[in-house]
Each structure stands twice: as C-alpha cells, then as structure tokens.
Amino acid sequence: MPSLDWKTPVAGAPCWVSLATHDLRAARTFYGQVMGWEFHDSSLGDDFALARAHGRAVAGIGACPAGGPPPAWIPYFAVPGADVTA
C-alpha cells in the first residue's frame, strides 16, 4: 500500500475545517468524545481552540457571538496560490 503524504495539500481538495459555535465548551466535549480529538488553547485567545488528532492539528473551533451568524462548519480548500485563484 502506498504511504499517504498528509502534508502536501491537493489543489481543490479540503485542507482545513473550522467550527463556529455558540457553545465552545459543549463542542469541545462533544467532538472530543465522538472524534477522539484533544483540544489546545491557541494564540487567538480564549474563544478559539485547536483540535488535534494523533498529535496533528485537524480543525479549529471558535466561539461565534450571540446574535451573530448561526453555528456552522466552515471548510477551507487548497489552492495553488491566492493570487492565481483570485
């Protein structure tokens, strides 16, 4: 079986996900139990955490303000370059 190189993003493929939620604590608990993720505080403050699996960052979870947009998963897609894509 060929080895997988997870460090090389594939253009057009999802490369990151973030969750915007009204209840950061509940989301950390839920996804920690369901996905086995561990969470680490980030330099972005108390309202954002990095989810890690097997020692690798796999997602971000951040608090969205009350009255703001509804909770949602936000996918990010790899591109060869932002200037080329724009």
Task: Give keywords.
86 residues; alpha+beta; 2,3-Dihydroxybiphenyl 1,2-Dioxygenase, domain 1; 5-stranded mixed β-sheet; 2 helices; 19% helix; globular
Explained architecture:
It is a single chain. This protein is an alpha+beta fold and 86 residues long. It has a single domain, classed as 2,3-Dihydroxybiphenyl 1,2-Dioxygenase, domain 1. Helix content is 19%, strand content 42%. It has two helices and five strands, in the order E-H-E-E-E-E-H. The chain has helices at 24-35, 82-85; strands at residues 14-21, 38-42, 45-53, 56-63, 72-77. A five-stranded mixed sheet has the order 2-3-4-1-5. A hairpin with a 2-residue loop joins strand 2 and strand 3 (45-53). The chain is globular. The model has no long low-confidence stretch (mean pLDDT 86).
Query: Can you give the helix content as a percent range?
Result: 10-25%
Task: Return the CATH class.
Answer: Alpha Beta
What is the residue-averaged pLDDT?
86
Estimated radius of gyration: 15 Å
Strand order of the largest sheet: 2-3-4-1-5
Distance between the termini: 37 Å
Number of domains: 1
Tell me which CATH architecture applies here. Roll
Class derived from helix and strand content: alpha+beta
In CATH, the homologous superfamily goes by the name: 2,3-Dihydroxybiphenyl 1,2-Dioxygenase, domain 1
